[in-house]
Amino acid sequence: MMIAIDGPAASGKGTLAKRIADHFGFACLDTGLLYRAVARDVAARGEALEDEAAGARAAETLELATLDDPELRSPSAGEAASVVAKLPAVRKALLDLQRTFAAREPGAVLDGRDIGTVVCPDADIKIFVTADLGVRAGRRYEELRRRGDPVTLAEVTEVLRLRDERDRSRAEAPMRPADDAILLDTTDLDIEAAFDAAVGLIMRRIARQG
Ligand code: C5P
């Protein structure tokens, strides 16, 4: 069973993916971390984030054990990730790894931007998680404030807006729902309600597929 979860930044897709994976006993891969780690490694080697050959080298030599680096969760790491994520050679270098993970038994949940469209076009279930920009920014702002980050809501909103725009408008694997994705709008849902809704959608899809 392969479950693809895509959506914009701070839509709640990562939390949802983990909850769904735990619920069904599946493996879970946050593919955003791959791009975040590639950007980190490019910068650590003193190379430019826009340098496609440097990005591809970092992607090819990526150490999966380094994905639990807490620094990768920072807003600046997300920003840097969306710069290297535009580069076709970087995306290509990360494709096999993601597809191999997606084939894990008894199932795998992958979350990102292009899972349903490019990485796993044959996924059994595709969910595209959305939420209004204001709501997503509010959630991210609260999260950062709790960590003691002296950021303003206006700054968080603008950073998310620009990152989504970059992810949506890039030529290679732009963020968009697959034609057969189920849309899940979490604007008015907390994580419990979003999880219940997602499990309901998955169970109905499984029942229909027999
Ligand atoms: O999901 P997360 O915010 O960690 O993703 C960071 C960045 O990585 C995104 O803004 C996007 O540019 C890129 N990304 C991507 N494709 C994926 C996952 C993430 O392009 N499947």
Bound molecules: cytidine-5'-monophosphate
What is the number of independent domains? Answer: 1
Q: How many β-strand stretches?
A: 5
- Supply the CATH class: Alpha Beta
Overall outline: globular
Q: Quick check: average pLDDT? A: 95
Structural class: alpha/beta
Alpha carbon gyration radius: 17 Å
Distance between the termini: 13 Å
List segments where confidence is low: pLDDT < 50 over at least 5 consecutive residues: none
Short structural description:
The chain has helices at residues 13-24, 32-44, 52-60, 75-84, 88-102, 115-119, 133-146, 153-169, 191-209; strands at residues 2-6, 27-30, 108-112, 125-130, 182-185.
Summarize the topology.
Layout: E1 2-6, H1 13-24, E2 27-30, H2 32-44, H3 52-60, H4 75-84, H5 88-102, E3 108-112, H6 115-119, E4 125-130, H7 133-146, H8 153-169, E5 182-185, H9 191-209
Parallel strand pairs: 1-3, 1-4, 2-3, 4-5
Helix pairs in contact: 1-9, 2-3, 2-4, 3-5, 4-8, 7-8
The site of cytidine-5'-monophosphate has 15 residues, from helix 2, helix 4 and helix 8.
